[in-house]
């Protein structure tokens, strides 16, 4: 292989791996800090000295990932890169969701307390959240503009925390960047700057994405959030994208070939909901009809900014929780405009829905 061709290949690898550490939902490449640092001379030098830096690079990854000093340093770098939104209401909302998820995760994985998550809201208006080395997380302001309920926000954050619990960012960092290539750009000194550019998850594989989705489902089912949100959020993405494969607001949902499709993620979550219910609850995804014991229960109407199909997954989630927790042994009742199965609220009726009395009577017949 010619020396010129070798230089071209290494430069290409550097370009492809410019951002590696995040377990984010990001799609489009965001601005990369210090983009001009990668020179041909640096790359050539790396060919001679890259192996020497191998232990050094692993040491830096461990520093950012496993030490409190490194975690705080990396968090500050990310804050400097993307800015901090100090909005009191948004931060209080995020604090509450993170607290609830931490308790839920601890019930199945107590190691979360060994390295508590550090997080903040950044100023970016696109729809994204990410987890990088050291359990450092950031949530875009734009995420709160797209998602209007805490259940779906919890799914996004639970997914990111799933990446963190399985150490996917560190695994991806070690796999995606060869020590010689990294040393070419950094001289062993700029790893933290790369880590701060935590938008694209080029170091995260499709199996890891699926694992994080599965963990998010597990975490949500150990919380008070509606498990139907694990499917509803993907229906929302489908609805909001209006058929476009890469709408600009959904950096989070379209991660290229390393991410499952939004449709497959919705359908996988729906399958998990059906299993969670003991096979009692299902959905006709094309019609948006929720079924109980294979009989039609309800086709919810659209409500507010939520489509009929998105709302159907929330009804499915409530029913799945009712069956999983044994509330189906009790009668369906009506409380105001809300249909309940035992102590579990199932659906609050709005204009366009059948009456709660009709739905309760039907549910009692088919449950």
Question: What topology does this entry show?
Answer:
Elements: H1 3-16, H2 40-49, H3 54-66, H4 68-82, H5 88-106, E1 118-122, E2 129-132, E3 136-140, H6 141-146, H7 150-165, H8 168-176, H9 179-186, H10 191-196, H11 206-221, H12 229-241, H13 262-276, E4 281-284, E5 289-292, E6 295-298, H14 308-324, E7 332-335, E8 338-341, E9 344-348, H15 356-366
Parallel strand pairs: 1-3
Antiparallel strand pairs: 2-3, 4-5, 5-6, 7-8, 8-9
Task: Report on the architecture of this protein.
Its cofactor is Zn(2+). This protein is mainly alpha-helical and 367 residues long. It has two domains: 209 residues, no CATH class; 88 residues, no CATH class. 51% of the residues lie in helices and 11% in strands. The protein has 15 helices and nine strands. The strands form three sheets. It has a three-stranded mixed beta sheet, with helices on both faces. β8 and β9 form a beta hairpin. α5 packs across α7, α12 packs antiparallel against α14 and α13 runs parallel beside α14. It is elongated, with a radius of gyration of 23 Å.
Parts with pLDDT < 50 across at least 5 consecutive residues: 2-22, 26-40, 188-197
Termini gap = 69 Å
Overall SS class:
mainly alpha
Largest sheet: 3 strands, mixed
Tell me the β content. Answer: 5-15%
* Total number of distinct structural domains: 2
Number of strands: 9
Shape: elongated
Taking Cα atoms only, what radius of gyration do you get, to the nearest Å? 23 Å
Provide the helix percentage: 40-55%
Mean pLDDT: 83
Q: Largest sheet, order of strands side by side? A: 1-3-2
Enumerate how many helices there are, as a single number.
15
Spell out the helices and strands N to C.
HHHHHEEEHHHHHHHHEEEHEEEH
Family: Belongs to the peptidase M48 family.
Protein name: M48 family metalloprotease
Pfam families: Peptidase_M48
Signal peptide: 1-28
